[in-house]
Amino acid sequence: MIETDILIIGAGPTGLFTVFEAGLLKLKCHIIDGLPQPGGQLTELYPKKPIFDIPGFPSVLAGDLVTNLMEQIKQFQPGFTLNEVAETIEKLDDGTFIVTTNKGTQHHANAVAIAGGLGSFEPRKPILKDIEFYEHEDRGVEYFVKDPEKFRNKRVVISGGGDSALDWSVFLADIASEVTLVHRRNEFRGALDSVEKVQELKASGKIKLITPSEVVGFKGAERIESVDIEINGARMNVPTDFFIPLFGLTPKLGPIANWGLEIEKNAIKVDNALDYQTNIPGIYAIGDVNTYPGKLKLILCGFHEATLMCQSVYQRMNPGKKYVLKYTTVSGIDGFDGTRKEAEKAVVKAID
Amino acid sequence: MPQDVTVFITDREGATHEVQAPTDMNMNVMELVRMYELAPEGTIGICGGMAMCASCQCYVLNEVALPEMGDDEEAMLSEAFNVKDNSRLGCQIHITEDLEGLKIVLAPEA
After folding, report:
1. Same domain, A234 and A272
2. What is the per-residue burial (b if ≥16 Cβ within 10 Å, else e) of A178-197?
3. Does residue A58 sit in the same domain as residue A130?
4. Contacts of residue B74 in chain A, CB cutoff 8 Å?
5. Nearest CA to CA, how far is B70 from chain A (Å)?
6. What is the span of the domain harbouring residue A186?
7. Rg (CA), chain A
8. Residue A161, in any domain of the structure
9. pLDDT at residue A86 greater than cutoff 70
10. Residue A196 maps to which CATH number?
11. Do residues A144 and A218 share a domain?
């Protein structure tokens, strides 16, 4: 069981900055995120795009902002449970919470801060007859390449035109016995070197490219035996062991929607007059995932909400204790790792 | 004084709405749909208007002069679902006086 003061759900900018504000109050944080890396949307959707409304940064790339936030919070040693989605929550008699992920990892926390943005990212599934049947119990449809060994010496059909389709085609070319890449256009959207790699592997016969085309159906009684591909109005049948559609990810509120929280317009209602607490005391919602009158889904608003929320958790954990605001410039920062950051002392010296 | 233009939007339930679209607020069609709340929050404009999610895909029903499709929009539509010949991404259609009378249908949520 992972023990922490504040359990943060979502490693986007709001979730990350929470660690900093909590750290100033000597509260420890642990973060759960369904993606394999921190940063949320910023890393997953637009790492190379600039953001112009972060105070103090005339322009900052989304990916750089995440790198900076990670640097800013590192002395407060946040824990991470990545690649796992928070699934259930249980409130104990003492008012603390146990949150369990889809992989069974348990977290015990005094307070829970949902900083889930638009929700957890789920694969975009093509609309095809019987696809649900084949996506269960190893029947041949996979939305992720979790264990590459599964595909060793097997035939694989990958569908999609973006980076993940290109990169996994390249990767599996060395493992699978046969890789076929299917895309609706001749053009691919991806990093230049990935496109070139696929070009090379196509030339050497390691990847079969079928464009412009799309997978329109499946054959196979127990599991996939082949896929039907439509190319220029004609049909062809390609025998395969696996079909991997890679059409990107889309966020869904997911299991949080069943936690008994008040939900409005796909967002969690909070008390914005005070501390961004939800209808369940001890559970807060901050950043894009919450809603209140006048809500703006901006990173800078998420930072503010995180800051006020931490004060509320402090009061919750230290009832009756008076907190006096300290400026980091004046009091410096003492990390949980023993480091100290402080302003340089002015020199008092006479000038002759 | 810039004029509003009239746009007809059929929502995902099939109801058609006649809405006034301001031409002086630097808005696009995806934002117009959100402004009038014609699709639930969280189901449209997920990426914020970067042509990266196709949640604002719509079908254009009439011949109205629209901005040409950019590379990003074309690439996104090539990966989206329910795409037809008249598909566009609402976030890539800037609202100008040229849009007067535009008729669109929101594509299903994918």
Report:
1. no
2. bbbbbbbeeebbbeeebeeb
3. no
4. 185, 187
5. 13
6. 125-245
7. 24
8. yes
9. yes
10. 3.50.50.60
11. yes
Q: Name the residue range of residue B33's domain.
A: 5-106
Residue A17 sits in the same domain as residue A117: yes
Mean residue pLDDT across chain A: 94
Contact B47 A119 (CB under 8 A): no
A121 chain-B contacts, CB cut-off 8 A: none
Residues A63 and A149 in one domain: no
Cα–Cα separations (whole angstroms), residue A93 to A55, A75, A90: 42, 33, 10
CA distance B97 to chain A (A): 28
Cα–Cα distance between A307 and A287 in angstroms, integer? 11
Among A43, A45, A299, most B C-beta atoms within 10 A, so best to mutate, is A45
Residue A252, min C-alpha distance to chain B (Å): 8
Query: What residues of chain B lie within 8 A of the CB of A41, using their CB?
Result: 47
Q: pLDDT digits over A246-270, tens only?
A: 988 888 888 999 999 999 888 999 9
Q: How confident is the model at residue B1 (pLDDT cuts 50, 70, 90)?
A: low
Interaxial angle between packed helices A13-24 and A62-73, expressed in degrees from 0 to 180 and rounded to the nearest 10: 20
Are B53 and A45 a contacting pair at CB < 8 A? Answer: yes
Instruction: Name the pLDDT band for B71 (thresholds 50, 70, 90).
Output: confident
Is there a contact between A50 and A103 (Cβ–Cβ < 8 Å)? no
What's the whole-number mean pLDDT along residues A114-121?
92
Q: How many domains does chain B have?
A: 1
Q: Cis ω on the peptide bond leading into residue A148 (within 30° of 0)? A: no
- Measured in angstroms, the CA of A117 and the nearest CA of chain B are apart by 10
Q: What is the pLDDT of residues B16-37, one digit of tens each?
A: 999 999 999 999 999 999 999 9
pLDDT band at B75, cuts 50/70/90?
confident
